[in-house]
Amino acid sequence: MVDRSQTLESLTAQERIALIGRLWDSLDPAAAAPLSPALAAELDRREAEADADPDAGIPWTALRDELRARLR
User: Fold this and answer.
1) What Pfam families does UniProt report for this protein, alphabetically (predicted)?
2) Shortest CA distance to 19 belongs to which of 31, 2, 4?
3) Cα distance between residue 35 and residue 38, in whole Å
4) What pLDDT is stored for residue 69 in this prediction?
5) What is the model's pTM?
6) Environment class of 26 (CB within 10 Å of its CB; exposed 0-12, middle 13-18, buried 19+)
7) Is 31 in contact with 24 (CB distance < 8 Å)?
8) Are 16 and 8 in contact, with CB atoms under 8 Å apart?
9) Domain edges within the chain
10) Which of 6, 8, 26, 72 is deepest in the core (most CB within 10 A)?
11) 3 three-class SS
């Protein structure tokens, strides 16, 4: 195997992030993150629940502020 550490180390942060994206996109989703039938059913249930009442959640900014307050 070729030592590519020198090549990787010469990449900028932006180039490394782009490479990570290309690698991620090249993965078969079913193989990269297989879902059990139980998990798939739970995700479907949560999606249906969110679709049925989209206003049930809280805005990200409110959640973020609440979490920051807890950390202080």
Assistant:
1) Unstab_antitox
2) 4
3) 8
4) 97
5) 0.47
6) exposed
7) no
8) yes
9) 5-71
10) 8
11) coil
CA dihedral 36, 37, 41, 44 (to 10 degrees): 70
Q: How far apart are CA 54 and CA 46, in angstroms?
A: 11
Two tokens at 22? 């290309």
Place 29 in a pLDDT band, splitting at 50, 70 and 90. Answer: confident
Say if residues 11 and 19 touch (Cβ distance below 8 Å): yes
DSSP the chain: ----HHHHHTS-HHHHHHHHHHHHHHS-HHHHS---HHHHHHHHHHHHHHHH-TTSS--HHHHHHHHHHHH-
The conformation of residue 56, written as its DSSP 8-state character, comes to S
Identify the residue with better confidence: 62 or 8: 62
Separation of alpha carbons 27 and 38, rounded Å: 23
4 φ, ψ to 5°? -100, 5
| Token output for 12 | 């900028």
